[in-house]
Amino acid sequence: MTLILAPLAGYTDKAFRKIATDYGAEETVTEMVSAEGLARESAKTEALMERFDESENLTLQLFGPDADTFHRAIRMLKGYDFKKIDINAGCPVPKVVKTGAGSALMKNPKTAGEIIHVLKEETGSKVSIKFRLGWDEENLNYLDFAEEAVRNGADELTLHARTRSQGYSGQARKEHFTHLRSRFPKDESTSPLLYASGDVFTPEDAFSYLKDYNMDGVMFARGAIGNPFIFKETGELLEKGSYEEPSIRERVDVLLRHLTLAIDYYGENIASREMRKVAMAYIKGVKGSSRVKLLLSTASSYTEYEEALKLLFD
Q: Of 74, 160, 166, 266, most Cβ neighbours within 10 A?
C-alpha cells in the first residue's frame, strides 16, 4: 500500500517533496513536465526535474499530445534515474487540453497506448498513466482506456474518478474503483498496480480507498497542500487504527522549515513569494489565523514570515 504525493503544478517542487517524504510519502512525483519543452531542451522544463537529493523516490510526470513528442523528449532523460515515468491523461486545464494533451487523451486511447509503447521500448523504465473517467458523462471510457494502456505495457494505473468536464468540481465517484478492480483482479499476476486519486483530504479518505476499494496505493493531491502530516497520519491509521494530529507549534515549525528549504533552493525573494499560498494552507482553521494570513499575503522574507506566525501564540 503506497502513499504518493501527486503532481501539482505550482506546488510539488523539490522543497514540498522533501517535506512530504520526511512525513511518510513513499513516492513523489514531479510537477507536470512538458514533453515538448523537454524535447526543445528548455532550462525551465529541466528545472522541474531536479531532485531534493539523490535519495528521493521520484517519478517523472510528462504530458504531450502524441508518441512522436515523447520520442523526441526521451534523449533528454539520459542521466536521470526516475522510479518510473507517468503520463498525464487527466489534466483538465484548457491550455493543456487544447494541444491534445492531458485529459484530451481520454478521447484518443490509441494515442495514449502508442505513447506508453514508445516509452516502454525506448527507456526501459516502468510506465504509469493517470487518467479520468472519461471526457464527459456521455463518454465514460475509463475501463477501455485502461485496457488499451495495459495492452501497450502500462505497469501502473491511477484513476481520478471525475470526468474532464467536471474538472475538480463535485465529488469523486468512488464506485468506479470497484469496476476498475474487477477488470484487473488483484490476485492476477498480469494486473497492473492500481492507484486512487480524488478527494483524499483526510487519512480516513485514504484508508477507504485502500481497504474498501482494494487499491494498491493512494495519490494525495490538494489534501496534502500545507498538510504533509496526512502521510504520517494515514500510516498511523493503517498501522494502529488511530492517529495524532499535529499541534499548532508543529504546523508552524514545518511551515518555516518548508520556507527555509525553498529559500535554499530558489533564493529568499522567489521563495517568500511562492510560499504565501502554501503558508495559508498550513494554518487553515487555526484560531486567530485571519490577521496572520493578512500579513503572510505580503510577506517577502523569512523574518516577516516568522514575525507574522508568532501572533498565533500571543
A: 160
Position 150, amino acid: V
The domain made up of 248-313 has a fold known as 1.10.1200
Domain boundaries, the chain: 2-240, 248-313
Alpha-helix residue ranges (DSSP H) falling in the chain: 14-22, 35-39, 43-47, 67-74, 94-97, 109-123, 142-151, 175-183, 203-211, 229-240, 248-266, 268-282, 289-296, 302-310
- Position 79 scores a pLDDT of 80
165 contacts 173 by C-beta, under 8 angstroms = no
Count of CB atoms situated within 10 Å of the CB of 36: 19
State the DSSP code for 86.
E
**91 catalytically annotated:** yes
d(CA 192, CA 48): 27
Q: Judge: domain 2-240, CATH 3.40.640.10.
A: no
Given the residues 3, 15, 85, 91, the one annotated as active site: 91
List C-alpha distances in Å: 114 to 111, 121, 146, 195: 5, 11, 13, 22
pLDDT tens-digit profile of 82-133?
Answer: 999 999 999 999 999 999 999 999 999 999 999 999 999 999 999 999 999 9
Cα(218)–Cα(200) distance, integer angstroms: 8
The C-alpha cell of 71 is what? 520520442
